[in-house]
Amino acid sequence: MRKVGPLHSFDKIKLLADSRRLDILRLLMASPATLTQLARIMGQSSAWIRHHILALESADLVAVREIRRTGKVTEKYYCARADALLLREVILPKTKKPAVIFSGSHDLALEGVAEHLEKHITLLNLPVGSLDGLVNLRQGLCQISGSHLRDETGEYNTPFVRHLFPDREVEIVTLAHRMQGLMFAGGNPKGIRKIADIANRSIRFVNRNRGSGTRLWLDGELKRLNIPTETINGYDRVVNTHTDAASAIQTGKADVSLGLQAAAHQGRLEFIPLFEERYDLVLPRENEKSLTPLLDYLQTVAFRNELMALTGYNSTHSGEQIPP
Q: Fewest CB within 10 angstroms: 87, 109, 155, 175, which?
């Protein structure tokens, strides 16, 4: 099986920003070739090809695969070091205070935390949902994640963390318990009463992104109720945050969505509670030092007061560590 190589160096990525070098590299990923063969394929001189090959060779992206001698003629066959490349580089702002990427489930309380800690730490948000957030954390694409994944036993987050981080020390800290349910316009013009009502084709639903804890809960509930997703008008229409879901209803683009009570309250929407969930922050132990300002703030009265100002949030267990 041919191999894919990771590309972490920004200098190498910058080198491949030149489309000519990228074209040469892609040809050499397909099969080894000489300078003459590459020149003929690309309609350029051998000297022009050689200039770019030397740059790729110095970056260890290509190498000489074989040297063939025919009479007095010697030809080098070049090949790519990998058969494909996975580009992965996080570019952070250069400041005196630490910059930290949060990737996971969208949370309204975290937005307030980021504002409060702005003098001490820059918290950058990449909302991708609980599951993809943990995957990003595992792959080093963020320093902290937020999750509200519930397994079939009713346990939150820890089974997923154990599965994804069997070889690393990970800290799990509860941010809050939050109420989720159905959000819809004031006056309830569609007469929505329960989750099964979203299967009514006259009701426009807006869903959350795949891998989000909200989407996974919904899929499990639809399966339990034996409701095919095809019957839901808007099941494939997705947004990435609770705020975006509320906004879609506010602007008349949808009639109902599943989301946080706090998002419904902020959007002046009506709300039917369905379940309370535990939302945890997850971070590898090696990231604990850079995240100390955030972890310390979770223990303060100021944070609990901020949390309780959000409708549907419960701060009773905020700041508690959960054994992984």
A: 87
Residue 128's CB: how many other CB atoms inside 10 A?
22
Both 211 and 288 in one domain: the answer is yes
Distance separating alpha carbons of residues 244 and 145, to the nearest angstrom:
20
Residue 250 lies in a domain: yes
Contact residues for 31 (Cβ-Cβ < 8 A; gap 6+): 79
Q: pLDDT digit string (tens) for 67-110?
A: 998 888 889 999 999 999 988 778 788 888 889 999 999 999 99
Per residue in 13-25, pLDDT tens?
889 989 999 999 9
Question: Residues 161, 172: contact at Cβ < 8 Å?
Answer: yes
What is the token pair recorded at 252? 């008349």
Instruction: Count CB atoms within 10 A of the CB of residue 65.
Output: 14
Four-residue CA torsion sign, 112, 115, 121, 124: positive
Residue 174 token pair? 């509860």
- Domain containing 305 equals 99-322
